[in-house]
Specification:
Jelly Rolls, 4 helices, oxidoreductase activity, acting on paired donors, with incorporation or reduction of molecular oxygen, iron, 2 domains, 2OG-Fe(II) oxygenase, binds 2-oxoglutaric acid, binds fe (ii) ion, 5-stranded antiparallel β-sheet, metal-binding
Length: 293
């Protein structure tokens, strides 16, 4: 057993370090010294079996700073402090936490006027034969099942115009810095019985990288004759410098005549649609697309 000593008057806290093998050292540290904080943190983390406690090197100044006591943190068994220091361990030391980045979206109801909505439904029902099966940029089988119409000029123009009217407000409500819009893309989709779109983001390739916001305008014939088809927007976390989806998510109902906006980088999916009639007219329809910077 060894003991080192220092003048007590010059320091705030007398700290007895209890090390593996029965060694003890007494040092005097300022109550706000970072090393004191680290010593306490190590003990508390070990009590909670946390990995972060495992390997670090302590270098504690002794002999009024003329010498240093060095030991590996795994040798530290306990501390005796005088005056006592009580640690609020539960709040201060959490398990190595993964930061979850909350996903934000906004949904605006009654987006088109009743007349515009009526015209759109009538238009789409006449266009059934022009719809083609969707695919994905990766061409992965069974990743996406739905129908799409790429040319619908009158309504593409209408939607883009309406989006332009509100986009500044949308960007600000989402808490995003403003950006110059280079283009607003649009497509018209129909999800019928058993259709879905598995988890993806909308700007993960060089061609799509400038997509900033995704919008989805939902519409369906009334009364609604499908269920499911919810939009799932995942929260994010960062892994190896990439955004990946967290477990947590927001569930968005595809409400008739509503439009949803969210960041194109968010991972999202369309849950399977159940449409017992299988009639095209009863599909879950969207005009959706991307606001590019
Ligand atoms: O239809 C939806 O709710 C989402 C569609 C979508 O994610 C897409 O087309 O990229
Ligand atoms: Fe998408």
């Amino acid at each position: 057993m060894q003991l080192t000593s220092q003048q007590f008057e010059s320091k705030d806290v007398k700290v007895q370090l209890l090390l593996a093998g029965g060694y003890q050292y007494t040092v005097y540290l300022k109550s706000d010294a970072p090393v004191l904080h680290s010593l306490l943190t190590t003990i508390v983390a070990r009590a909670y079996n946390q990995e972060s406690a495992a390997h670090s090197l302590f270098q504690v100044p002794i002999n009024e700073g003329y010498s240093a006591l060095c030991f590996s943190s795994d040798r530290l068994v306990g501390l005796v402090t005088e005056p006592p220091i009580w640690v609020q361990q539960i709040e201060e030391i959490k398990p190595p936490s993964i930061d979850i980045l909350n996903s934000n979206y906004i949904q605006i109801e009654n987006f088109l006027s009743p007349k515009e909505y009526e015209q759109l439904i009538n238009y789409v029902l006449k266009k059934e034969s022009d719809f083609i099966a969707t695919s994905t940029s990766t061409k992965e089988q069974d990743y996406r099942r739905s129908m799409v119409l790429y040319s619908f000029p009158e309504f593409a123009e209408l939607i883009v115009k309406r989006i332009q009217e509100i986009i500044t407000d949308v960007i600000s409500k989402l808490g995003l810095p403003s950006f110059v819009i280079s283009q607003i893309e649009s497509q018209l989709t129909a999800h019928n019985d058993g259709n879905y779109y598995k988890i993806h983001n909308d700007n993960g390739s060089p061609e799509t990288a400038t997509r900033e916001l995704t919008y989805i305008y939902y519409f369906n014939k009334q009364p609604k004759a499908f269920s499911g088809g919810e939009l799932i927007i995942y929260d994010s976390k960062i892994e190896n410098n990439f955004y990946v989806n967290a477990e947590s998510y927001k569930k968005v109902e595809p409400l008739n005549n509503s439009i949803v906006f969210f960041l194109s980088r968010y991972m999202h999916e369309v849950r399977p649609v159940i449409c017992p009639s299988k009639a095209f007219a009863n599909s879950r329809f969207t005009i959706n697309g991307w606001v590019r910077r």
